[in-house]
Amino acid sequence: MSKTDSIQNKPPYGMIAILFIGAFIAILNETLLNVALPSIMKEFDVNATAVQWLSTGYMLINGILIPASAFFIQRFTDKKLFITAMALFTLGTFLASIAPVFGVLLAARMIQASGSAIMMPLLMNVMLTAFPVEKRGAAMGTFGLVMITAPAIGPTLSGWLIEHYSWRTLFDIVLPIALLTLVLSIFKLKDVTQQRAMKLDIISLILSCIGFGGLLYGFSSAGDKGWDSPYVYGTIIVGALALITFILRQLRMDDPMLEFRIFRYPMFALSSAISIVIAVAMFSAMILMPIYVQTLRGISPLDSGLLMLPGAIVMGIMSPITGKLFDKYGARTLAVFGLLVTVVTSYYFSKINMDTTYFTLVLLYTCRMFGMSMVMMPVMTNGLNQLPARENPHGTAMNNTLQQVSGAIGSALLITVMNNRTEAKAKDLAAHVMSTMDANTAQPSAQTAAEMKQHIMNQAMLHGINFTFFISTLIAAVALILALFIKRVKPHHEEEIVEEGTISSKEGVTG
Fold first, then answer.
1. Three-state SS at 510
2. Dihedral (C-alpha) 177, 178, 184, 188: value to the nearest 10 degrees?
3. Most exposed of 209, 223, 360, 409 (fewest Cβ within 10 Å)?
4. How remote is the C-alpha of 44 from its chain's centroid?
5. Which tops the pLDDT comparison, 186 or 405?
């Protein structure tokens, strides 16, 4: 009996639980600080552009380091890698909690991100190793609790804490959990995955950092600086060129840092395409809802967070259920049903107005999250199931990288669509108001003019949000069409024969 078979017969649940906790607080931190940004701006006297780097920078470091995670997972033991990642995350959390100036807080967030970037790919890889193909659905469904629930809970939790305490409390709460996880990992963790003697290709690492970092920075900055800024299109062009060079280099290497040849497996390639499209559609609600409920409707940050809480709870409940359904019915049935729900609810979001009730918003958002819960993990797991075990680190690294990049690009594009549509509508409404005013009509007072201007801007922004949700509906419809081509990967036991540097394996799919 091989080591892998032994592990799959008796999965290391204790180890997986420790990895779960670490990954949960790492992902939670990605969205936890968003509601606190205004308070941080006030305390450190920095502008919105500077403070936004606390979120953008976190995502940027993740995007740079995740592609290298495949190398780290294959080169270093699970225990050493997780302890290092958790120690970095804990150090960053502590520094953020006591940060005397904004620069220290920003550096602390970068240190946090350098640890969290490794946790998700490591956890996914351990789970792929620890469970046989026919049981991965339930296991990865539970993993969905971490991946989906943590960022959904973040705004609600931080909204409540900021309303009652200092923003530093966000880090004070996470710190003891991080310390406990670090201590447990030192004494309880063991090594599950296979290690290989590999050398890090420095040129590939540099190209990866410039490529993914340039794209993430460029698209993330577009909403603030505008697409005509040389900082935006310059970094996107440099990033794209570096990424193309990086990919070509990996395809020529016998032992690449990130294996792009895994896209020759059709179900993995299809699952990656669907995941990219879904990530863009999912980010639309995460971006547009806070703008709508807080800016247009004047709902408090806490209440806007609570609006999203039922959706987070539903996703948390559904993740393990979806995993078991995946094991029984496969990914296509779940994905098609989930995307139908997503398309319908996204369309109804494109029809919201200033009188839409709070209950209706909660119901729509919760149903949309229910639909999403049926899609993300089944599609991703089905794609990963087709990969040979030796390619799992590359598969998990590729999935996480694509989600980071598509999330940043999707966010920037949707914000651009909303802003452009809002500006165009504002001009049309202003022109209409001017044309309806009789030349002999007395000029409105300053207060009336200000109220008219605000009304026009609110109506224009609502139109922009509606239109962007409609675009999101079309994007989700594309994912629905792609989901029709999903085929279930046969549960099989790989036969890998390492002989004279070659590896052969048996894979298969069924309709």
1. strand
2. 120
3. 360
4. 28
5. 186
CA torsion angle for 81, 83, 86, 87 (degrees, to 10)? -120
What's the whole-number average pLDDT of the chain? Answer: 80
pLDDT in tens, 173-205: 889 999 999 998 888 777 776 766 677 788 888
Q: Could you tell me whether strands 502-504 and 497-499 are parallel, antiparallel, or unpaired per DSSP bridges?
A: antiparallel
Kindly indicate the confidence band of residue 10, based on its pLDDT and cuts at 50, 70 and 90. low
CB within 8 A of 199, min separation 6: which ones?
255
100-137 core/surface letters (b: 16 or more CB in 10 A; e: else): eebeebbbbbbbbbbbbbbbbbbbbbbbbbbbbbebbb
Return d(Cα 361, Cα 308) in angstroms, integer: 9
Closest CA to 388 of 487, 493, 485, 273: 493
Alpha carbons 376 and 399: distance in angstroms, whole number: 11
Rounded to an integer, the average pLDDT of 100-116 is 91
H-helix segments, 67-168: 69-75, 78-98, 102-130, 136-144, 150-164
Count of Cβ atoms closer than 10 Å to residue 155 Cβ: 25
Q: Which residues contact 105 (CB under 8 A, 6 or more apart)?
A: 40, 44, 54, 95, 96, 99
Indicate if the alpha-carbon torsion angle 253, 255, 256, 260 is positive or negative.
positive
Q: Identify the pLDDT of residue 348.
A: 92
Give the three-state DSSP class for 489.
Answer: strand
The pLDDT of residue 509: 53
User: What is the greatest pairwise CA distance in the chain?
Assistant: 93
Residues in the chain: 511
Are 39 and 168 contacting, i.e. CB atoms less than 8 angstroms apart?
Answer: no
At residue 375, the 3 state secondary structure works out as coil
Please state, in angstroms and as integers, the Cα–Cα distance from residue 304 to each residue in 60, 290, 294, 357, 358, following that order.
26, 7, 7, 13, 10
User: Cβ(388)–Cβ(496) under 8 Å?
Assistant: yes
Which DSSP string corresponds to 292-316?
IIIIIT---HHHHHHHHHHHHHHHH
State residue 176's pLDDT score: 94
Residue 233: other Cβ atoms inside 10 A: 15
- Confidence label for 483 from pLDDT (cuts 50, 70 and 90): very high
For residue 509, the cross-strand partners are: 489
Q: What is the pTM of this model?
A: 0.74
Q: Which residues, in sequence order, are CB contacts of 245 under 8 Å at separation 6+? A: 207, 211
Are 234 and 221 in contact by the 8 Å Cβ rule? The answer is no
Tens-place pLDDT, residues 343-387 = 999 999 999 888 888 899 999 989 988 898 888 888 888 888 888
Residues 6+ apart with CB under 8 A from 315: 144, 148, 149, 152, 369, 370, 372, 373
